[in-house]
Amino acid sequence: MDWATISASPYYTWVILPFLIFLARIGDVSISTIRVIFISKGFKHMAPVLGFLEILIWLLAIGQIFQNLHNPLCYIAYAGGFAMGNYIGITIVDKLSLGQVLVRIITRRDAVELLSRLRQEEIGVTSVEAQGPIGPVKILFSIIKRCDLKRVVDIVKQYNPHAFYSVEDISFVSMGQFPESRPRRRMLNIFRAHRKSK
Q1: The last residue of a domain, from among 96, 130, 159
Q2: Do the Cβ atoms of 60 and 24 come closer than 8 Å?
Q3: Contacts of 16 (CB under 8 A, 6+ apart)
């Protein structure tokens, strides 16, 4: 069976083609979402590559739409792929945990233990005395890698469970204290132990 016969079959027209358009739209919109995030985070070398792939996939999808204007399922698949692509793209960006964030913690309790624990984790933190609406508070500021956010939030909840905290994206950091990633730290320790044994 040749390609002309397959493409002319009702099964291809009403099932396979809309499904392929749906997948193509998921692909190009997901890439578009990731590309925009990369641009905002300063990954200027990856953005052009993603942009090339995004437009290439989009051209393939829109080309099939124009060749099958009589098929309403193609329109539905195109729109559905766009919606799903946004969701998948955002999910992928969340999993990648790119860039840095500013964590602002406001607590009424004594924050000595919290500060000590954060510094034990090699997380740079600045504390400021302030006045809240119902009394004195302590404000803690820390710029961390997004991949460390869950660990920091867990520490805050452990030592000051009723503390208020907010998280903001930041695009540029000139300098700071960031904890090494744990796999890298283990590799360094293994390397040092190997050197001492010689």
Answers
A1: 96
A2: yes
A3: none
- Dist CA 125 CA 103 (whole Å): 9
User: Cα–Cα distance between 178 and 122 in angstroms, integer?
Assistant: 7
**Nearest-5° angle of CA 179, CA 42, CA 142?**
35
Q: How many domains does the chain have?
A: 2
Q: Which two tokens stand for residue 48?
A: 């052009």
pTM, entire model: 0.67
Q: Are residues 83 and 107 in the same domain?
A: no
**Cα distance between residue 64 and residue 115, in whole Å:** 58
Residue-wise pLDDT tens digits, 119-154: 898 888 989 988 888 788 889 999 988 889 999 999
Answer yes or no: is 84 within a domain. yes
Whole-number Cα distances in Å, 155 to 21, 77, 159, 160: 45, 45, 6, 8
Contact 130, 138 (CB under 8 A): yes
Cα gap 95→115, rounded to integer Å? 28
- Structural domain that includes position 19: 3-96
CB 125 within 8 A of CB 119: yes
